[in-house]
Amino acid sequence: MSNKNEDKKSKVTDTKGQNQNQTIKGDLTFDDKVIQKIIGIALEEIEGLLTVDGGFLSNLAGKIVNTDDVTSGIDVEVGKEQVAVDLDVVCEYGRNMNNIYDSIKEITTREVKKMTGLNVVEVNVNVVDVKSKEQYEEENTTVQDKLSEAAENTSNFVSKKTDNVKEATSDVRDKLSDQVSNVQDNVMGSRVK
Q1: Is there a single domain that holds both residue 124 and residue 170?
Q2: Total Cβ atoms within 10 A of residue 90
């Protein structure tokens, strides 16, 4: 019986030994969208960078509903070891755009390398507009935001009018109650005489 247990142990050891000597082949690849997301999320921390501009259709969609698509406006070419990046951006008025560009390159290179091991070999940034922060925020109020605000205002208006009706109804009820009491007093007073 002890021989069977020893045989099993030696077989397991042999199998483990074989796996350690084998080379496992394969490739790790990344979809463009993965690299775009890494860059899009990383760029959110750059002061003076208002947005990455996704073009007319993307911007139009963004004006209709709130979107969290961090890949919009980021074009990448992903190779086996390298990445090239193209961005169209909107910068905040009064900010040093060379510093913003340097920050974009540094953060993009660092985050892509840290998460994927790929080297960013090219970062092309085209500044398509410059706006004040207030102007940017005002222009980026979506239809969804406006509808939500209108619904809230309507709800507040209806609630206020409902309260007014309740108050008026209560006043009418109190007056009617007083008049009924007066009529009852008059009826009772005329019977007593």
Answers
A1: no
A2: 17
Alpha carbon distance 85, 106 (integer Å): 12
Computed over every residue of the chain, the mean pLDDT equals 79
The reply to whether the predicted model has a pTM over 0.70 is no
Per-residue pLDDT reduced to its tens digit, 136-163 = 888 776 555 556 666 676 777 677 778 8
| Domain range for 193 | 142-193
CA atoms within 13 A on the CB side of 116: 27
Same domain as 157, residue 125: no
Contact (CB, 8 A) for 103 and 42: no
Phi, psi of 148 (to 5 degrees): -65, -45
User: Does residue 113 share a domain with residue 58?
Assistant: yes
Same domain flag for 68 and 122: yes
The answer to whether the beta carbons of residues 108 and 39 sit under 8 Å apart is: yes
Number of structural domains (the chain) is 2
Domain boundary among the residues 123, 141, 159 is at 141
Phi-psi region of 94 (alpha: psi -120 to 50; beta: other; left: phi over 0): left
Q: Are residues 95 and 146 in the same domain?
A: no
